[in-house]
Amino acid sequence: MTELKTVGEVVLAQLSGDLDHHSARLMRLEIDRAIADARPRRLIIDFSAVTFMDSSGIGLIMGRYKLMHEQGGEVIVARPPAYIKKVLRLAGVDRLAPITDSLEGLIPEVKEVDKIEQTTPQTT
Amino acid sequence: MSRRPLRPLNEMTVSFPAKSENERFARLAVSGFLSQLDPTIDELSDIRTAVSEAVTNAIVHGYRDFTGDVLLQVRIFEEGRISIKVQDKGCGMADIEQAMTPLYTTSPEEERAGLGFTIMENFMEKVRVKSRPAKGTTVVLERTIKGKRRL
User: Fold this and answer.
1) B150 has a pLDDT exceeding 70
2) What is the mean pLDDT of residues B110-132?
3) End-to-end Cα distance, chain B
4) B110 contacts in A (CB within 8 Å)?
5) Nearest CA of chain A to the CA of B20: how many Å?
6) Which domains are seen in chain A, by residue range?
7) Range B17-35 burial, b when 16+ CB lie within 10 A, else e
8) pLDDT at B5
9) CA angle B94, B105, A52 (to 5 degrees)
10) Is A21 on the interface with B (CB under 8 A)?
């Protein structure tokens, strides 16, 4: 499963379930559609709900890295569980995409947008 | 040196068509069968990943031109030693060494990373590959399960 959110110039792809050769096909199709639509500067792939990943996940990350790199953007691999980290480390993914344990500061805060909207009427 | 004449304490064999939907089934079948050894989460996760790579190779590469069945056999020996055989009767490989080279892949368009054998070798203790063009490929993965009880 892939859940996609676009916030400003950031696309957040939250993957869930098993990521293997079978499921990777649909996941990458959906992510690529979001990238084509939003033309983001940053793609965050959130692995926190991924229950299994083999080298198909590495292929998925490398493919998205290429896409984002071509348009001057970056890929961030977020919140991988320990068993996924082991595969990422073995593949040397950190040389292409930073791996982070938190989403903090990576997505423009929706709250800040609210704040601006709220404070604007007061100042005008 | 002759090979140890080992008889498995337990074993199971399943065979399924080379459909990608069955990659998950193969992992579950292996996990389910090995649960009798009470493996740790880490052990099981390593084994599932290695099996997934071998089965995916059979489906993507072995049966690239025509389809057929994948045979999966798991054997349990003394002292938690296990052996997992993944066999296809697909196209086979002329150059096993090249196929096992990290990052080498014949399917870049499918976004295969070329890391299948690297993962198998790192997550298992021993990987044996037999292959003959037009005959098929057999991969045997071996390791020991220490399990929770023995820790």
Assistant:
1) no
2) 94
3) 33
4) 21, 59
5) 5
6) 2-123 (3.30.750.24)
7) ebebebbbebbebbeebbe
8) 64
9) 120
10) yes
**Is A51 in contact with A18 (CB distance < 8 Å)?**
yes
What type of residue sits at position A17?
G
Tokens, residue B105:
């892949």
- Containing A69, the helix (H) or strand (E) segment is helix A55-70
d(CA B133, CA B90): 8
Instruction: Tell me the per-residue pLDDT of B32-54, one tens digit each, with 9 for 90 and over.
Output: 999 999 999 999 999 999 999 99
**How far apart are the C-alpha atoms of A73 and A68, rounded to whole Å?**
5
- Non-local (6+) Cβ contacts of A7 within 8 A are A107, A108, A110
Tell me if A39 sits within 8 A of A4, measured CB to CB.
no
| Ordered structural domains, chain B, with CATH | 10-144 (3.30.565.10)
Assess contact for A89 and B121: CB atoms under 8 A. no
**B54 C-beta neighbours (distance < 10 Å), count:** 29
Which single residue is written with the structure tokens 């025509």?
Answer: B66
For chain A (length 124 residues), average pLDDT per consecutive 10?
94 98 96 96 98 97 96 97 96 94 87 48 47
Q: A124: how many CB neighbours lie within 10 A of its CB?
A: 5
Chain A environment of B119 (Cβ under 8 Å): 54-55, 87, 90
pLDDT for residue B122 is more than 50: yes
Q: Least CB-CB distance to A52: which of B21, B27, B60? A: B27
pTM of the entire structure? 0.90
User: Which tokens belong to B54?
Assistant: 């071998």
Residue pointed to by tokens 């499918």: B110
Contact status of A64 with chain B (Cβ, < 8 Å): no
Higher pLDDT pick, B121 / A115:
B121
The overall average pLDDT reported for chain B is: 94
